[in-house]
Amino acid sequence: MSRLVEIERRLTACRRCPRLVDWREQIAEEKRAAYADQDYWGKPVPGFGDPEASLLVVGLAPGAHGANRTGRMFTGDRSGDWLFRALHRAGFASQPRSTAADDDLRLLDCYITAAVHCVPPANKPSADEQRECGAWLREEIAALTGIEVVVALGGLAFGRVLREELGWGRVEPRPRFGHGVEAAFSDGPLLIASYHPSQQNTFTGRLTEPMLDQVFERAARVIRQRPS
Ligand code: SF4
């Protein structure tokens, strides 16, 4: 069994955060009317993608009626629509849509995970919940040995990647979050910050598709230029 598969098996059974366990299961039981005939996943959502990936994308947490419904990160909601269109344009996804776990999407040289693996109320995991789930992020990253670039979607993911002990050394001084901000770990990948493709950002124009494209085009350039 590969290391990532073994992590996934343990992660999907995790119940360390009582508040988030209750919330993910309550959403799965109540459902949104549009999905009333579907079985929700309602468990921790593991990362997915290419185990040899050069690009790691870190989001905030599963969407209530997206990943918490479909069981795959960024799958089945508007944030995912934006993310996968951008990944496809940059060559990191085989198709621009991610609608269900069996939709044949393949990530190309890319792996997607999140700072927190269970959907939190109001998209706000507590500091303790973030720390608790950081253990899973560390395990996933230890199993992904080819990462050259990390794209953090949103300030929370950016902060977690900087704060966790990921085996990549330090970033000094620690930068403030902003769209397009970059930071290089002393012994690890380049970290690029992006505004999260949440509806709050995309509906208001805070994040546009060209802005998201810039981030993934930059990631692709860095990966292409690495010494072989
Ligand atoms: Fe476990 Fe993470 Fe979910 Fe907490 S948020 S229950 S640590 S998977």
Describe the structure.
With 228 residues, the protein is α/β, with parallel strands linked by helices. The protein is built from eight helices and six strands, in the order H-H-E-E-H-H-E-H-E-H-E-E-H-H. It has helices at residues 3-11, 18-30, 67-70, 78-89, 127-143, 155-163, 199-202, 209-225; strands at 48-49, 55-59, 110-114, 149-153, 182-184, 190-194. It has a six-stranded mixed beta sheet with strand order 1-3-2-4-6-5. Helix 1 (3-11) packs antiparallel against helix 5 (127-143) and helix 4 crosses helix 8. The longest helix has 17 residues, at 127-143. The radius of gyration is 16 Å and the shape is globular. The two termini are 29 Å apart. Iron/sulfur cluster is lined by residues 11, 14-17, 20-21, 44, 116-118, 129, 132-133, 136.
